[in-house]
Amino acid sequence: MIRLSGDEAVNQAYYADNNAGVLANSNIFIEKNGEKIPVSPDRALEMLKSGETYPKDLTCEVLSVWDMLLLAEKKGTLFVHPCPNTVLVFTRDYGAELGSGIRGIAIRLPVFEAATSWAMQSPVIDLDYDRDEFVVKLYPRMLLRKKAWQQDVDLLRYSKEIANALIRIFALDYGAIWKTLRRDTYPKYEGEPLVHGGHLLDVVLEDVRTTIEQGPGKKAVLKETV
Length: 226
What we know:
Layout: E1 2-5, H1 7-18, E2 27-32, E3 35-39, H2 41-50, E4 58-62, H3 65-75, E5 79-82, E6 86-91, E7 96-99, E8 102-108, H4 109-121, H5 127-137, E9 142-143, H6 153-157, H7 159-169, H8 174-183, E10 188-189, E11 192-193, H9 197-213
Antiparallel strand pairs: 1-4, 2-3, 2-4, 5-6, 6-8, 7-8, 8-9, 10-11
């Protein structure tokens, strides 16, 4: 929760009063003489108008955008997986389609940290808008799409890290992936394939798609219902 006071709390009271339900998770208080009295947005505005209270006495506790994202992850509509240098983000709506109902992007860790810092300091105003604003801040992004590494130097650089994370997340068969690499015509050294990160990621993404399409019997990243 974020604690706002003074004019910021007054602005929240006006917004809540004019947009029923938008700030349903916010709490508005009048603080006087050591007491903390909860009031509704319209009551707070009435008291300000009549002079019963002043902006300096008004406080508001409201969900941060980060709190909202944590709730989305708990509900299963968002999945975030941190790696040493990157973060994988899975949703229903953003990024390359990994399989039916699941899309994914990867971003460098500093990009994710900057976006989360903003989310922790920003109060929720509109759930959909704030979620979209957070996703916009996840840029530049790497699309989890086969052969995308050919045009994305960052995706190529972190391809092995991302591929290994996907193997763990979707509980893929690493042995089967290695067999595919050995079977296909990739460069070899003494009969064994040289593990090119981009080629490895392509094979893993194909296995991810197969795993998702096999349905709920396999490891699910996002819940079936949104």
